Amino acid sequence: MIYLSEQEYIKRKEEEQNRKKREEEEKQRKQEELIKKKEADLKKKQELEQKRLEEEQQKQAAEDAKYVKGIVNISSIAVRDLIYSEPGYKADPFVVFKSADQKKQTTIAKETMNYEYKDEYIDLIYDPTKTKEKREVEIEVWDCDISGSNNLIGTASVDIITSFNKLKKFELFLQPKKSKKDQRKSSKTILTVNQDPQIGKVTFKMIYQDDATWVKQFKEAQQKKKDELINMKKQRIEFFRKKSAEKRNYPKGVVKFSKIAIRNIKKFDITKRTDPYVVLKMGNLKKQTSIARNKTDYDYQKEEYDLVYDPNKMQGESEAEIQVWKYDRFGKNDMIGAARIDV
């Protein structure tokens, strides 16, 4: 028990009230600080989540930007070590390449488990707006069956981005349709799918190019071919121009033919008889030997012939034509053969 004066009592009462008030204010301040801290933590968490989402979106946008509309060109296609059906069976394999709603195939090989589809090319148009995020080329190897439905040997797939603007070789192990696994890179430049050689494999080269690059290279290739043709044409024109100039430079003169002979002339009618003679022609001029009666080999002894060569009348021609004819007593003579020689 304590006995206080009225003044002291009032003083203590006021101090107690002030203490409680301060405690209440401190409690309220701490609660407000706790709320602010929670709000700050929540805001920071939201900001971090927003930043993470933005980074993922940027990363996805950067990844999507790699996949542009373009052309996927496939070449050097081959199948290797196919194992299908019973031992000793020979398949008629063909390869199908698919991208989105496109599907193209090779020719059909006959009775073989190893085959190169030489000079065969597959072009697939890749449009990211139509592929629904499908960024792979799917490969299927089939066995053709003309008497029924074709039989699937195995499948594989490859992401097109791995060959963007660079020609790359792929060697893919075939997998059953239901157990196809994701591909992974080997230590070399060749990509493989599930190192399981139980079915066989498909090999090919592939390059994925954007429209602008493909069109540019296509135009360059076309221009190169055009330039080569123009160059060949120019060379041909130049060759004949020089040839014509050489012919025009030939002086007027006489071409003498002597020691004329025929050898191994074929007997080709039912009589088995050949009566050959030789015709010498140059421009509008023509001379003829005597007729060798029933001969396949003959020397036209002491027969010599002169033909006047006039470059103005020959109109640039500088060749003499030698013809061998078969004489026919009862009908039309037949030409056996001819040759030309520059004078």
UniProtKB/TrEMBL annotation:
The molecular function terms of the Gene Ontology recorded here are: lipid binding
Biased composition regions of type Basic and acidic residues, renumbered to the chain: 8-36
- Organism domain of life: Eukaryota
Instruction: Please report the stretch or stretches of sequence annotated as the C2 domain.
Output: 52-174, 236-343
Q: Which InterPro entries match?
A: C2_dom, C2_domain_sf, Synaptotagmin_plant
- What protein is this chain from? C2 domain-containing protein
Q: Which GO terms describe its cellular component?
A: endoplasmic reticulum
Q: Where is this region: Disordered?
A: 1-36
Looking at the UniProt entry, the stretches that span the membrane are none
